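Internal ticket - ligand job 331, magnesium ion:
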Amino acid sequence: MSVFAAERTVAINAVLRASEVCQKVFKQLVSTETITKKDKTPVTIADFSAQAVVNTILYKSFPNDPIVGEEDSGDLRGDTGKEIRERILSLTNSVLDEPLDEEKLLDAIDRGSYPGGSQGRMWTLDPIDGTKGFLRGEQFAVCLALIVGGNVQLGVMGCPNLPVDFNAPEGERGCLFIAEKGQGAFQRNFSSTEETKIHVSDVSSVSEASFCESVEAAHSSHDDSAQIASLLGMTKPSLRMDSQCKYCSVSRGDADIYLRLPTRADYEENIWDHASGSILIQETGGEISDINGKPLDWSLGRTLKANKGIVATNSKIHSKVIEACNKHFNK
Ligand SMILES: Nc1ncnc2c1ncn2[C@@H]1O[C@H](COP(=O)(O)O)[C@@H](OP(=O)(O)O)[C@H]1O
Ligand SMILES: [Mg+2]
Ligand SMILES: [Mg+2]
Ligand SMILES: [Mg+2]
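stdout (structure tokens):
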């Protein structure tokens, strides 16, 4: 029986509303609506607005739950932030039942500042994962997960540009993925409330497997993945895609492996970049770890500081892929 039925319903509503914001912006984004953050990565009015929408909806049902969210309102305050703040406010209010004022908007965004840790309940939110994909008109995802005592219990992901059927890439787009611990995982199209149970592929011969990875070589090394693929005798070209849509692809069997291989020794993966994807993989019969085969540790704060990279696959081939990673990185 579902333990988090109420959370599931609220999370689905929040992710769908935030996805709506992204779709609206997508059709009319202008260059002044994108900011470059201190770490040189982009953020748009849609990222801020999606975070405000999700945090507002979560707060209404679960006022005591802290949120580890990617964005903060720093760049939106004061005179310099006025124009962008006004755009975000009107966007946010266009999908909320009760309108916010400017102060409430900034407060809602900053409710995502929780430092994380091993105790109690918390949500983690990536309002747009794959902002670079979003800006290119390619894949991105609104990603929300519930973590309890350091364990991911629920993940909901909205993928507005993902084809509902991998084999019909020109067909309908827009899918929602829902996974709850012990309950399996489901795909729902944006146009319907019907849920279809999904599962990973059953490929057991790794040489026949296909893998997906980031479009951005700065996020995951394409050179290392090509060498690991060759070690495994894999010949299919990699499926390059932005965002946690990669987890969705593996979870419904479009690809068999998701490789995320560190490009910098000092980089720590953010929990919001992987929490919803990790439970989706586990609940569809897959396996996920870091590149050394270590389980992901969600209890250490806002990042996965005890882990390096990510390997997510169907369960049959996980150990073989980890073996190849070991061989490659420890040569
Ligand atoms: N050097 C790096 N290594 C790995 N991930 C990185 C990175 N720099 C940024 N990222 C993360 O990569 C995410 C996108 O992943 P992908 O390449 O799979 O689409 C970004 O999420 P956002 O787009 O939410 O900022 C960001 O958090
Ligand atoms: Mg970002
Ligand atoms: Mg992200
Ligand atoms: Mg993001």
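Auto-summary: Residues 5-26 form the longest helix (22 residues). Residues 175 and 189 are 4 Å apart (CA to CA).
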